[in-house]
């Protein structure tokens, strides 16, 4: 952390655009929160209502939206999308560690596998037969990569990732620890009170620029491949069942479950713990709120929600008791309407 | 894939029964979807409404139910349960890879462990003291098997599975990557504002023919064993707490949580993300819908559901606002009824 | 199990207090359930309603609350908090296995790491650069500990745990198999229909006496650290997002998800599968019921619930249909009230 490279604000706007207000020679080298920032740190504010906090920060510079008022003493970069600008600046300050080429002596690489010499295979990793690993790939400690799987250039597998046989992972992907790709889907057929396993002979195909959060699982297809489109971002502990297709640039928050053969469109957003039924289709640009179970196809873009509103336990008890009889309550209202209609009619 | 063994349709019906309609000499070697199938592939249709798609497939043969209309040009096997028949055919075409006997040189097997010489211990696997591993078992790369645990014949542990000490896994089980069996249950006793750990001295006992999906966790018992009955099928990312008992041939979809000391009957089906309270008992042949939280024992077979119906966010906002006041709404209906009863009574 | 150490009841009350009724010389060596207990086992009953079962147990002694009736033939210890007393007795009978000092020959420890010589690094574990591992620490098989991470005295990592770089774990923690600590938080900024990654440069800081259940994930902070307070107990498959803060001695059941930047107070209890929105604050001493989604900050202690009550599927269909139109039903009640008010007003 000590010999961090620093940049002048003018260097930053030259690189990423935006309007620089204040001293272009201010040198910054890291991003920080408003509270923790010091004079070599950059902060950002994406929502106008937090602008008031700027007066207390010790940051060297701020990234602000065009709606920021002008009366600020701090050096600042004004831009259209402060959060994305911040992402660029932070990536500049915090480049990902490059692969240290080589296969660790405790790693086990099958002699039929092709591992580019620029790639890194960490300790206790195991690489199967005919695996193809591209350039500058990092395979973390304790990872397993099954036979015939391919991993594209610049992809990183963190530690203890399991990728089964016959899967394809694109370029520039980030796969976090504990992820399992290509396990058998839950294909079982009932016969005489027991379950027969359906062999899962498809694979998993993951596009470029996909990030997969820790302990997420993506099952292989029953017959064809499970498909994850390019630029999809998956948070932790997501379950993606067999035969699912997820369109490009869709973002899915943690703990979501997507049941078998569901198709999710492009540029969708699924909130945490949302659950998607099997065999349904969700259009492009759909947002599903956290905790919502979607049991029907959605053909129209928009935001969909289905969450029981929480309350104190006492109020919940009362309301839930009525909910259990809601159909009866509706019937009583119908009766009242009928009665009142009749009563009224009887009064001239 | 290239030198796949092929079968005549007559061979298949000789093996699995069903009525063969069309050329018994048609040779097939793989199962496929209707869209992807070619002349050496078999397709199946389990629901009559998909039968129309048969006319476009290039498949060599189809597996159909007895309700399939006769006017089909494709060679076909008609049977009572097409999905189970398909499972049999796919298993015939896609036999599981046998164990390649031997202990990899990077695996660590305690000298007191007994590993049958027909079994396979993959690279970087670690086998504890007094572990007993049966015949033709496959222990995947990076697995850990704790002291005194036993694994039955023909069971497969995929990569990076952790089995704690003192557990028993039956025969012909399939345990997918990242599964954890036998971790401590969540046993804590409150005292003076802090939590004391209750040692979890039971184990986990898993019957024969159980499949366990990726990253599922099954905790050891507090005093006695957590029990998973024979033929139980568990999908990915299921959490089974300490002291749970699951009856034989129950199937549980992904993301389900079963709290401590719950007892689930035989031949039950739990939909994805269903949640089962602790200390309750669920009878045999119960189905719980996806996303349903069961907080009471269920003594009767049947299907149980409790899911907030989703809608557009705008409609949800309106309905949820009323749900928060449902008890009051019911009271207003009661008042209307009382008033109307009185009004009515006052009219001779 | 055979040469287990035994204790006289008098030894136990001398150590942990409580009132001993019956023969102080009874020797016991293990805890058990009422059904399984034999003459050298101790049982406990925390709720008066189970006291009737005491008459059938073969246990050597029982731990009971002050509310237990006196007419019991079994030797017994009467105390204020039988469950906590049982925890103490069980811990006495079942001490955790101590670390067997040493680094396994297949473990890989970077030469810049400092591992106390009393600690144990198991087979296939990988320890990064400048890692500091305290005294009597146990690092399980297949674990990965990233650069610059520190692990406090007497902490246990079970098998296949992944701890990323730059994290801190306190003393006497227990981290179960498959846990991932310090993976990148889900920080993405949208720009032109694609997602930019926000580097996650904070770490994770875990206090003393924390237990973390199997396959739980705790993400590193975006800028500052994600914080888990001392004495926090986390069950399995919990997801804790970046920048979350959890107060001391809070207990969280399995499958809970806590979204980014949420702050949870001290001594809270979150039921299984509860979901906490991002950027909200929950006060000390709040209980959230299982399956409840909390979408607003909670400033007051108390119990909060929001769960759709389950029923048979048929009843659910009827009630859910009405719930979809609840706003309309409320409007109809308003109309009835208006009409009835008018009607009534028109009657002198």
Features:
homotrimer, 348 residues, alpha/beta, Udp-n-acetylmuramoylalanyl-d-glutamate--2,6- Diaminopimelate Ligase, Chain: A, domain 1, UDP N-Acetylglucosamine Acyltransferase, domain 1, 10-stranded parallel β-sheet, 4 helices
Structure overview:
The structure is a homotrimer of 348-residue chains. Chain A contains four helices and 40 strands. An eleven-stranded parallel beta sheet of chain A has the order 8-11-14-17-20-25-28-31-34-37-39, with no helix packed on it. In chain A, strands 9-12-15-18-21-26-29-32-35-38 form a ten-stranded parallel beta sheet, with no helix packed on it. Chain A has 348 residues and is α/β, with parallel strands linked by helices. In chain A, a hairpin with a 2-residue loop joins strand 22 (188-191) and strand 23. At the A-B interface, strand 22, strand 23, strand 38, strand 39 and helix 3 of A face strand 4, helix 2, strand 40, helix 3 and helix 4 of B. Strand 39 of chain B pairs antiparallel with strand 40 (311-312) of chain C.
Q: What share of residues of chain A is helical?
A: 10-25%
The geometry of chain A reads as flat
> If classified by CATH, what would the architecture of the largest domain in chain A be?
3 Solenoid
Largest sheet, spatial ordering of strands of chain A: 8-11-14-17-20-25-28-31-34-37-39
Blueprint (SSEs and pairs):
The structure is a homotrimer of 348-residue chains.
Chain A: E1 7-8, H1 9-16, E2 19-21, E3 27-28, E4 30-31, E5 41-44, E6 61-65, E7 75-79, H2 82-93, E8 102-103, E9 108-109, E10 114-115, E11 120-121, E12 126-127, E13 132-133, E14 138-139, E15 144-145, E16 150-151, E17 156-157, E18 162-163, E19 168-169, E20 174-175, E21 180-183, E22 188-191, E23 194-197, E24 204-206, E25 211-212, E26 217-219, E27 226-228, E28 233-234, E29 239-240, E30 245-246, E31 251-252, E32 257-258, E33 263-264, E34 269-270, E35 275-276, E36 281-282, E37 286-288, E38 293-294, E39 302-305, E40 311-312, H3 313-323, H4 326-346
Parallel strand pairs in A: 4-5, 5-6, 6-7, 8-11, 9-12, 10-13, 11-14, 12-15, 13-16, 14-17, 15-18, 16-19, 17-20, 18-21, 19-24, 20-25, 21-26, 24-27, 25-28, 26-29, 27-30, 28-31, 29-32, 30-33, 31-34, 32-35, 33-36, 34-37, 35-38, 37-39
Antiparallel strand pairs in A: 1-3, 2-7, 22-23
